[in-house]
Amino acid sequence: MQMTVLSDPVVKLSQEQLDTLRKAFRLSPRETQIIALLFSGITDSAALAREMKLTVGSTKGILSRVYAKGRVSDKTQLVLACLDTLGAPYA
User: Fold this and answer.
1) pTM of the full structure
2) Angle subtended at Cα 49 by Cα 43 and Cα 54, rounded to the nearest 5 degrees
3) Which CATH code for domain 4-86?
């Protein structure tokens, strides 16, 4: 699977990569969407909420569920877990 680098460190995940993550972590469509947004460079909870047309509280709840499913405790660890799952190299 090839990732398209838009601008460092922003990465656009392919649908195949998102499907891989959805299956590996058993994610809902909203949870998958939040991962795609994180990889696109939107990391602030308020910005995520605006993009998803949800409240900040709802967005934080979704993030908490994704953290639990990925067995991580923050956004950085989540991105690294996703990269690891995809077999992507990172420094």
Assistant:
1) 0.83
2) 160
3) 1.10.10.10
